[in-house]
Amino acid sequence: MTTHDDRDKFLHQYGDKLIDQGFGNPYNMSIENKDKLFKQIIKQLIFFRESSEINQFQKGMNEVCQFWDVVVENAQAFKDAFCTSPTPFTKDSFLALCKTTFSEVGSNRRREEQDTQYAWEMFLLDIEEKCVDVCFSELLVFITGADKPPCRGFQQKISIAFYDQEPGVKRNPFSSTCSLQLSLPRNIQDSDILKELMLTALKDSYGF
User: Fold this and answer.
1) Into how many domains does the chain fold?
2) Helix ranges, 66-167 (H)
3) Which of 53, 186, 50, 179 has its CA nearest to residue 108?
4) Does residue 28 lie within any of the structural domains?
5) Whole-number Å distance between alpha carbons of 175 and 208
């Protein structure tokens, strides 16, 4: 902020949010004390907002043989369990999270499911190459409710299942976040058709 107009625009957009975060009256802020407010916001968001949860977690860990103290004393050994660095998804890394359930080998359904599987992999490739207006984290939220895998991984692989489209009825792919399952229509021979269905399903879903 360098002008009073900048200040007014900032407070119009963020003033109520700052009050919700526990700041007394940000509307009294002046351009001269903006740096002080900035430091307070950073401290609130990084430390105070999370401190009670962190304290409760540490207390709970120490109730089991003072285990948190053991973690602190051996921080490097426990680093992988508590600290993760997000790795960007690729088509292959997303596929590695999934397990496809096919019908019996040689059956018509198996052939139809393999057609859809190919279209599904092409959709993932489109996401990787940024050819569609969605990202892997949005897709993961649609399937699991989480925008990234837990630090120790999901309890199971994402299950890719299939369903039959009823004649004259277009049903979009759907998911069950509780069971980590994505259901795709069988017999999709054109990858653009599945892309359209997936984009509709993703864009028309609210939350999970």
Assistant:
1) 2
2) 67-73, 75-82, 91-95, 108-128, 136-144
3) 186
4) yes
5) 9
Q: Based on the domain organization, do 190 and 96 belong to the same domain?
A: yes
Do 98 and 199 fall into the same domain? yes
Mean pLDDT of the chain: 89
195 Cβ contact partners less than 8 Å away, ≥ 6 residues apart:
119, 122, 123, 126, 132
55-100 per-position pLDDT tens digit: 999 999 999 999 999 999 999 999 887 877 778 899 999 999 999 9
Residue type, 146: A
- What CA–CA distance (Å, rounded) separates 110 from 39? 59
Q: What is the pTM of this model?
A: 0.64
Tokens of 110: 């198996």
Is 208 part of any domain? no
pLDDT for position 80: 80
In which domain, by residue range, is 65 found?
A: 4-82
196: left (phi over 0), alpha (psi -120 to 50) or beta: alpha
